[in-house]
Specification:
about 110 residues, alpha+beta, 6-stranded mixed beta sheet, 2 helices, globular
């Protein structure tokens, strides 16, 4: 394992870097991958199309359901029109640790 995770701890929770693949057969968290520029990303597949913010809304809804947190706890920081996105996740230390552990288990 390289040890590189697509997460950064903040005073309010986490910042997560995600690479979205829209129009997939199912919604799923796949794995931690290393982009060509060397940065780690969490690969997520979504059934939503990449039009008019549908994939962005689906990403927030999917991750909120996946981690059992309110949708308002997840905010898109950057990447509105690209596949690689940065999300702020407002959470407590216990949930941040659980999310970090889950993503760490997906790392190469």
């Amino acid at each position: 394992m390289s040890g590189a995770l697509p997460l950064t701890a903040t005073p309010d929770g986490l910042v997560l870097t995600v690479r979205v693949t829209p129009k997939s057969a199912k919604d799923a968290v796949e794995a931690v991958r290393i982009e060509s520029d060397g940065r780690p990303v969490l690969a997520v597949r979504l059934t939503a199309p990449p039009v008019e913010g549908a994939a962005n809304a689906a990403l927030v809804t999917f991750l909120a359901k996946h981690w059992r947190i309110p949708k308002r706890s997840i905010q898109l920081l950057s990447g509105e029109t690209t596949r690689v996105k940065r999300l702020a996740i407002v959470t407590d230390a216990a949930l941040a640790a659980r999310i970090t552990a889950e993503i760490g288990a997906l790392a190469p």
